[in-house]
Specification:
The complex is a heterodimer of chains A (about 110) and B (about 110). Chain A has about 110 residues and is mainly β. Chain A is built from no helices and 11 strands. The chains are: A mainly beta (about 110), B mainly beta (about 110). Chains A and B meet through strand 5 and strand 10 of A and strand 5, strand 9 and strand 10 of B.
């Protein structure tokens, strides 16, 4: 069974530029999550989707971050404009139901 | 929001030693998940616990769901070099999504 796919693995941008990350969850997993992991910390939830609907986006900085999962399968997370403090690993995870999250390898963002 | 605490923050052990770490919450959980993260990789699920008092093993790893439902423990027996990494606990935040602890960083000395 294929795991959670994410791209790109690495991205370096300058502040105020924009960036987009893509995630394809495990086939059949209805729930998809985006987490932000700053160096030395545990993952922090940004947004949770159930199929193509948003379940929780309370910690998403909506002035600069946006995410969509239009067809209930893959998802994109966008940051525009990026700030220095957005440097982190962006992890996508999926689950069959609400539980037992399976993570992708992550997309490491460096903002200069 | 809900927060999890993990202890110790980091630990250095000799190869072959047993390891114990724990995770505590200020609120009651009905699920505990334990993950391991290697450098440059995403977290990998080790053990899932669903019932207070439950004791579950996965090879040399054993995790327990605390009887108070506010804590969980992970033990690693006979540690080996590939056990090196960061161990995270996670629990459901208000039943909808999962909040992660800050992690315990494990180093194994040969």
């Amino acid at each position: 069974e294929a795991g959670v796919a994410q791209s790109p693995r690495y991205k370096i941008i300058e502040k105020r530029q924009s960036v987009a990350f893509w995630c394809n969850p495990i086939s059949g997993h209805a729930t998809l999550y985006w987490y932000q992991q700053i160096l030395g910390q545990g993952p922090k939830l940004l947004i949770q989707f159930q199929n193509n609907g948003v379940v929780d986006d309370s910690q998403l900085p909506k002035d600069r971050f946006s995410a969509e999962r239009l067809k209930g399968v893959d998802s994109t997370l966008k940051i525009q404009p990026a700030k220095l403090e957005d440097s982190a690993v962006y992890l996508c995870a999926s689950s069959l139901h609400t539980g037992e999250l399976f993570f992708g390898e992550g997309s490491r963002l460096t903002v200069l | 929001g809900q927060q999890l605490n993990q202890s110790p923050q980091s630990m250095f052990i000799q190869e072959g030693e047993d390891v114990s770490m724990n995770c505590t919450s200020s609120s009651i959980f009905n699920t505990w998940l334990w993950y391991k993260q290697d450098p440059g990789e995403g977290p990998v699920l080790l053990i899932a616990l669903y019932k207070a008092g439950e004791l579950t093993s996965n090879g040399r790893l054993t995790a327990q769901f605390g009887i108070t439902r506010k804590d969980s423990f992970l033990n690693i027996s006979a540690s080996i070099p590939s056990d090196v990494g960061i161990y995270f606990c996670a629990g459901p935040s208000y039943g909808q999504n999962f909040v992660f602890g800050p992690g315990t960083r494990l180093s194994v000395l040969p």
